[in-house]
Amino acid sequence: MLSGLALTFELVTQGPTSRREVALTFDACQTRSPAGFDKKIVDILCKKKVKATFFLGGAWAKAHPKESSALGTEPLFEIAQHSYFHPHYTALDKRQALADMSRAQDAVIKTTGRTPRYFRPPYGEFNSDTLQCAKQLGLKVVLWSIVTGDPDKNVKATAIIKTVLTKARPGSIVVMHVNGRGWHTAEALPGLIDGLRAKGYRLVTVSDLLRTKT
Ligand SMILES: [Zn+2]
Q1: Going from the N-terminus, what domains does the chain have, and what CATH number goes with each?
Q2: Ligand 1 centroid distance, CA of 124 (Å)
Q3: For 27-40, what is each residue's pLDDT tens digit?
């Protein structure tokens, strides 16, 4: 069933390989227990004028109204969504999936003033119901092609930089975390950004990466 549906539902793991572009993405995951915000990440992106896409959890946005509003007003940033309570979508029925996803959409619009076009399922887990709900809400499902491993305290900044610079290809989508659980993310960012630029990559939003025109 899923393989047949996959043709009609868009699932993105990377952009076209025809342009030397990479998208840095930052998830703000929040379950029913509180998460944080790593402002250093945002400061570095702004200082280096780096475009990025933030996948905000609805519960996170609601708990961080000031930060969400600031992200929404920064022209370098694109705002996407990352569910409301960060559930395992494969454990939800379709009604529950739609409720969580649409609640997140409302919360992110309300707090950022921007309307997400992309949905990233928590843990990268999805099924045909997830894809149908996203389509119903006008959202494309976006995963990633490079995992930095930044939620692991033992993954040092040097390792994050090495992973990204080794795996980067035209069209890559890199996943990191801005919710205070990306332990060495901010520390890695300057080297990661400079390294990608030195390799000739433009850093773009997911929308830029997926655009059809050159
Ligand atoms: Zn997450």
Answers
A1: 22-210 (3.20.20.370)
A2: 8
A3: 999 998 889 999 99
